[in-house]
From TrEMBL:
MF terms in GO: ATP binding
InterPro entries recorded: LRR_dom_sf, NACHT_NTPase, NLRP_HD2, NLRP_innate_immun_reg, P-loop_NTPase
Superkingdom field: Eukaryota
Cellular localisation: Inflammasome
Membrane-spanning ranges: none
Protein name: NACHT domain-containing protein
Residue span, NACHT domain: 45-241
Amino acid sequence: FVAEYNLPSDERVDLATRYTEPVIIQRSKEIDQLFSPDSDGNTPKTVILSGDSGRGKSFMLQKIMLDWASGELYSENFDVVFLLKCEELKCAVWMMNLFGLLSWSCSLTSDQISQILELKPEKVLILIDGIDELSFDPHIQILLPTNPLQKALPMDTLRSLLNGLILPESFLLVITRSAADTEINLLKGPLRFTEIMGFSERGVQEYFQKFFQDDKTYESLKANESLLTACSVPLLCWMVCFCLKKHLTDDDRVMRELKTTTSIYVLFVSTLLEHHGHSQSVLSTLKSLGLLAEEGMKKQQAFLDEKCVAKTGLDPAISMFLYKDSLKRKNRQVPVFKFMHFSFQEFFTGLFYVLLDENQSWGKVRELLRSLKSKGIISRPCPERRSNPVPSVMMFLCGLLNEKASSSLFEMIKWTVPHTIKLKTDLLESVLTVRRQHGCELFALRCLYELQDEEFVRRALGDWVSMNLSKVSLRSTDCWVLLYCLQCCPHIRYLNLMYCDLTAEKLKILQPALCMCETLRSVCLHGETLKK
């Protein structure tokens, strides 16, 4: 079972019923093929499964464990499966050996695990969720444990497990937002690289049918093509379904208004606040959530203790956006809280900046922009790393300055952003700086798309006569971003989309804008070079 965190009673629903198969690309196309031999007969020891935030990576790990335990998946390959969550391991600061590390997430004792591993280590599968949570500096030489009994800091023990210094016979499935080079160098081979893309259009249809038990709602969704594409992201698909279920009598209007990622989050938050009682004022609740979210961002922590929550004045018992959990602290369980998904921590941080008074907001946004510049690289995969949440916060901030997208929330709290023009001007300066670096253009375009302000977009891209996105992998959602920006700026005459992973579906999205370009370079479909 999995918890539906938006329900007051934390009602649990059947995991298998809610689960919809995502699309996985590169060598393996189905979950049951992840560890199958390649054409040369080589079986990978480590499978890296990467994917953007909200694409269903962690949920898929739970489904793999459920299917293995039910005898439906890998039952002949593995006798035991462990799940290690890096966001939890990050909180452990005491020494432990391999057996202590593996006992962290299950009810088995270190002695029991030791006996299991001695029998058939080649029948062990270890699922590692969120390796991008961790910061491994390849330039720092550390004496890593080479013996399962040797105690070390959890990160060092994990590192030895990843590169095969200990338990080399085992198999690993590593989940990450980005397959960065520093992470790849840590992993034992043979390696297999796969990427989770989210739902296909058929998968979105299946999810809607399961959620609503009818075909009507999905048929209505198809009228909004950009929203249909957004629903390929499982998290957004769930949020859209939840909102539509609460607004059934007005679902056509709701679907028309949902254009950006921020607009989906705003409607979801507004809908939850409408349908749940709260002792605090809504404005006070949102400010407290924002303060809590920013505090976690600064410390790079997803888990927040009771003291940290209490400092904000928030009552976690009535906050539907926080999930109560517990963490192991040596021999005891300590209660902690976390946002229902890390992206909500990013959203509420952006909202916090908008809800501050002018001087405070000004300072916070400038601090955010300085952090953005100091990080240097803004292009994928770096924005998707949880250790660098600044780009996502900035995109939400841009989206919240879109008055139409944020109206349902701001009308509820009777709030008008008093310094919208100043904030937009500062953001414009930042976007102009960022987009001059190749590979960072897409991030700049995403920010502009979230704003949905045509005049602002034209000002930001006013001197562009060409756009070079070569070797930047474009999602279908990115194609809607690019279409919008190109339609706002018909003066862009040259467009380079070489090696952008374009498909017929993505070209169809871009088609209305492509005819406006005098020169277009692209490789699409089966590798043909398209020139105009």
